[in-house]
Amino acid sequence: MAITSPAGFDIAALRTQVLATYDRVARDPAGDFHFHRGPRYAVDYLRYDADDLASLPDACTARFAGVGNPLRIGPINKGETVLDHACGAGMDLLLAARRVGATGHAFGVDMTPAMRDVASSAAVEAGLGGIVTIRAGLFEELPIDNESVDLVISNGVVNLAPDKSRVFAEIHRVLRPGGRLYMADVVVQRELKHEVRNSPDLWAACIAGALPEPELAEIAQASGFRGSRITERFDCFRDTTAQAKVAGDLHVQAVNFLAFK
Asked: What CATH class has 13-260?
């Protein structure tokens, strides 16, 4: 099972590596990374709408590093409260905020200060400052009240968690009864090699912490979710250095995943 990190894994080192990686993305999105970034990647690989992205501040779209497209999973309704539980520079968050409109609210939580700064300024620039709130926090300890949001969106971040049961429990806690989880994340079709699972660098690249696909539904059900299913698949690592590093571990891909509280 990949629900937790390997025995003896240095969780503190992982968190430091993840923070350093995404701080570097925030400061230099055109730098050298194991994964794709930016609006062209989002359109060509993940089926985002080019016009939607062109209408957002360049600062947030340039720093986008998701793996799927959770906004394609289902409706986001006017007046709803949405949480992007590791929002990064805020691209998905701002797109969701536009859908909930002035009668709704969109919360973004992220642990990386530089990413929060970009998301906050992008929300103001996009004219969404009144309905977007950015908070510092971890996805294992969300600074959000119990049963206070209608929808949690997540893009490429659950795989970064050393204890995924705790992350799913937190998502379940903050959702209202009947609430939805729209999640995009990396999955594998068979267990990864030990040296891959124990690489903080490949954890930070969204690969080494990926769940085998059947475990995704299992952990959701164990956390109290129902009606879970995969709705779409994405070849998000095509033509990256990460793909070469895991060439022997077949079928690393991203999926859109839907579940209900």
From this structure: alpha beta
